[in-house]
């Protein structure tokens, strides 16, 4: 399927986005197909945006003394494949072929260890504030691109709270799933008709 793509996957990288390598990854189990997209939110400090702290956190370069909240996450080594900032800018921290550390203890459709077989997308946001329109727009384009390249995720998108219920609440009540799915379908229909 040919798409008038803004984004493109090549060698596990999303071409057209800024690459900020995180050391927090390892190999996926042998012959593991990517089959799930997991959507998260994160903000550092919580519900504050900008400042570059998320990027520093995923690179193990966050100065824990800058904010009291940072001391509660001191030493944590986590990552994501993609982060979508409030502006809609997309950053990549881990190659899709590698296993990012975003889901933690988790289960999807009875299958444990979602990090093994998923791609993680963090939205800069929180459980108590709406996401930016630019973030939905970027998420729609990125999701369409990834679904084209990794067909299994066409049917499998989950929130962190879905795969780690009781432990995680993100992307939270302000993430508008219905709107996201409508926009995604509309974008894919439009892209397909453009490509003939
Ligand atoms: Zn999460």
UniProtKB/TrEMBL annotation:
SUPFAM superfamilies: N-acetylmuramoyl-L-alanine amidase-like (SSF55846). It catalyses: Hydrolyzes the link between N-acetylmuramoyl residues and L-amino acid residues in certain cell-wall glycopeptides. It is an enzyme of class 3 (hydrolase). It is found in: Cytoplasm. Residues 22-172 form the N-acetylmuramoyl-L-alanine amidase domain. Its EC number is 3.5.1.28. InterPro entries: Amidase/PGRP_sf (IPR036505), Amidase_domain (IPR002502), NAMLAA_amidase_2 (IPR051206). Gene3D superfamilies: Peptidoglycan recognition protein-like. The keyword Cell wall biogenesis/degradation applies. GO terms for molecular function: N-acetylmuramoyl-L-alanine amidase activity. Its cofactor is Zn(2+). The keyword DNA-binding does not apply. SMART domains: Ami_2. Keywords: Cell wall biogenesis/degradation, Cytoplasm, Hydrolase, Metal-binding, Zinc. It comes from the Bacteria. Belongs to the N-acetylmuramoyl-L-alanine amidase 2 family. This is 1,6-anhydro-N-acetylmuramyl-L-alanine amidase AmpD. The lineage of its organism: Bacteria, Pseudomonadati, Pseudomonadota, Gammaproteobacteria, Moraxellales. The gene is ampD.
